[in-house]
Amino acid sequence: xxxxxxxxxxxxxxxxxxxxxxxxxxxxxxxxxxxxxxxxxxxxxxxxxxxxxxxxxxxxxxxxxxxxxxxxxxxxxxxxxxxxxxxxxxxxxxxxxxxxxxxxxxxxxxxxxxxxxxxxxxxxxxxxxxxxxxxxxxxxxxxxxxxxxxxxxxxxxxxxxxxxxxxxxxxxxxxxxxxxxxxxxxxxxxxxxxxxxxxxxxxxxxxxxxx
Length: 211
Ligand SMILES: N[C@@H](CCC(=O)N[C@@H](CS)C(=O)NCC(=O)O)C(=O)O
Known about the structure:
Number of strands: 4
CATH architecture of the largest domain: Up-down Bundle
CATH topology of the largest domain: Glutathione S-transferase Yfyf (Class Pi), Chain A, domain 2
Distance between the termini: 39 Å
Radius of gyration: 17 Å
Structural class: alpha+beta
Bound molecules: glutathione
Oligomer: single chain
Shape: globular
Helix content: 40-55%
């Protein structure tokens, strides 16, 4: 049994979507980061960086923070969503790292400056939005002529990137400008496991789906 500590954010949803896709049994612990629950002594023992998501796997005694590490761990444990061929395995890892080090942090800044504090820091707003557009363009080129981030196999790279793209409205991104991203986004949004995992630990809104 796995304990998942999470909240209704892209990094949290990555893990609930993966757990749903894997069909693993898990129990959800809601950590309301808007109420400071990530700062309790109890949670810090599980996630020393004060952030969700985190897991405790009682089968192995392993506790993990950092969504990328958790995804690699769960994929390896289950033998799914991480290709076995060396080339593709490293490509999935490469795009997972691209999400962790680039797309996630940059889009997170767009949420701060464009969605929640527009006009307060014009330089930062412009810088992160410009970077977001560049990142969407990289993603669009990557998805040209293929269904998923790595060839035609759905993997943890798709599951890591998708929840961030699901906030395209917050980011003021017009997905019509990125047709390959839009096609990919909509096909993943239709997956039953994504529809379930998106609403963990609770329902906030329907998955945004562009026309
Ligand atoms: N690199 C971390 C980032 C985790 C992260 O930023 N989590 C946010 C929610 S998406 C959080 O817990 N924020 C609470 C805080 O910053 O106090 C990961 O991918 O797991």
